[in-house]
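Reference record
================
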Amino acid sequence: MAFITIIDDDVEFAENISVVLKGDGHEVRMRDETKGAVEDLIKATPDLLILDVMFPENPSGGFDLAREIRKNDKLKRLPIILLTSINQQFPMDFSYKDIDKEWMPVQDFVEKPVDMEELLDKVREILKSTGK
């Protein structure tokens, strides 16, 4: 069993992901904003973070938080799956090839609308690679 944190402003969507992850045997915690997230993640560091990109207060809040996490000595190794609808809202042909340790410092990403089986596969893969 792994401890997973979901940060997404769409609470209903986060709850749906939570149900799927709990059904797979994981403990899940949810947040609906990026403000104060670093401090909370330090207090209770998860095995994996599932992070949305766009937040009402900051359209690139997920990117910004991922970069902040990578600069923090206590969190810099925290695996992150980024959830994005950026290709739907701003067609840019954004893909996994764009993962970059500086610009997009995450392990993987899943496009919205999320295919829950794809997300679960990626969660399992990342947790397996980290020994969880």
Notes: The chain has one domain: 3-129.
